[in-house]
Design brief:
2 domains; alpha/beta; TIM Barrel; seven-stranded parallel β-sheet
Length: 345
């Protein structure tokens, strides 16, 4: 455990409030039995937060894994295609099990997010993660394949980048209708209770806002509120200056952020982002050029499809010569939420 030394009671109280606030944000959707079973993990998180705040330590807290080097879509805004190499080989499920035990469990990673490529094309790997890290696995999917039920899955992040017309413009013809149908099939099937909870609680929507789709935010919220559990927002992060999909900092972007804050106030239990996190999106919170500064990129262990560590962050690459995200223009939700909680680089 971290030694607190001679810190004042007020300091300890403040840190406790920060950690408890953060933990509340981290455990949406978890039942009482989950919390009891995972109590040692929460003590671990508390310990890491204290180490960060008191001793400027940089512990790994979360995980991100590209489980496959293949995707069935070619979305216009996707970072993954920018650096993808034609490597036919992926790790086996047993190889990932070994990595989970040697890296994720050893470092007491709380939640891991499975991405790709399209991770639902490797249900065997998802199953292994769910077995090894029960109720601590999120799957980010385009939703165009049927959504399989995994007993120990935390939830699905389903990407919907605007209403149907704009989404299809970004992700391909008929992609929205396929995703919508697969979501509805998942939550309305006869077997619609998982671990004592209705299946709709397993579905969270994620929207990456860009110059094409920002006008559809409110309509998307209205379409899915009351149908799925939550919705989260982030902004498109460019890899090159002049990316036409990036929304430059300024008046138009500020209006969009203010709209998101209004939606958070109106639907506090549906919009997952906090107001402070959303406010960060009005300017540079990440770094200088392609170098993370304020961004705590160290907090997420990010591995590619071969188990290699990605730099500088989860949308980077294991190849040092690959294109890098522009940190000073970053709009990622997974790091900005940490900055909003006072965890900086």
């Amino acid at each position: 455990m971290v030694c607190l030394g001679k810190k004042t009671p007020n300091t300890i109280l403040y840190l406790s409030q920060v950690v408890l606030s953060a933990v509340v944000d981290l455990i949406y959707g978890r039942g009482l039995t989950d919390l009891i079973r995972e109590m040692p993990l929460y003590f671990g998180i508390f310990n890491k937060y204290l180490g960060i705040k008191l001793f400027h330590q940089k512990p790994t807290m979360y995980g991100s894994v590209d489980v496959i080097n293949v995707c069935n879509l070619h979305c216009s805004h996707c970072y993954w295609w920018l650096n993808r190499k034609n490597e036919d080989q992926d790790l086996s499920a047993d190889e990932w099990r070994e990595i989970i035990r040697k890296r994720f469990k050893k470092q007491k990673i709380f939640v891991v997010t499975l991405v790709g490529g399209e991770p639902t094309m490797r249900p065997d790997i998802i199953q292994v993660f769910c077995e090894e890290m029960p109720r601590r696995v999120c799957v980010v999917s385009n939703g165009t394949y049927p959504l399989k039920r995994f007993d120990n899955l935390y939830f699905y992040w389903i990407s919907l980048d605007g209403t149907e017309k704009i989404h299809d413009q970004i992700r391909g013809k008929d992609s929205y209708s396929k995703t919508r149908q697969n979501i509805m099939d998942y939550i309305s099937s006869q077997d619609n209770i998982r671990n004592g909870k209705p299946a709709w609680k397993d579905i969270w929507i994620t929207m990456t806002i860009n110059s094409l789709n920002h006008g559809t935010i409110e309509d998307l919220v209205q379409e899915w509120k009351g149908v799925v559990n939550k919705i989260g927002f982030q902004f498109h992060t460019p890899f090159v200056k002049g990316d036409p999909l990036w929304m430059p900092f300024g008046q138009e972007r500020n209006i969009v952020v203010d709209k998101l804050i209004d939606l958070k106030e109106k639907y506090p239990n549906f919009v997952i982002n906090g107001k402070k996190q959303l406010s960060l999106m009005k300017g540079n919170w990440g770094g200088i050029g392609t170098t993370p500064v304020q961004c705590p990129s160290w907090a997420i262990l990010s591995l590619d499809h071969m188990g290699r560590e990605k730099k500088p962050c989860c949308i980077g690459s294991a190849d040092s010569k690959a294109l890098k995200p522009i940190c000073e223009d970053c709009g990622l939700g997974c790091y900005s939420v940490l900055v909003a909680q006072g965890i900086t680089g």
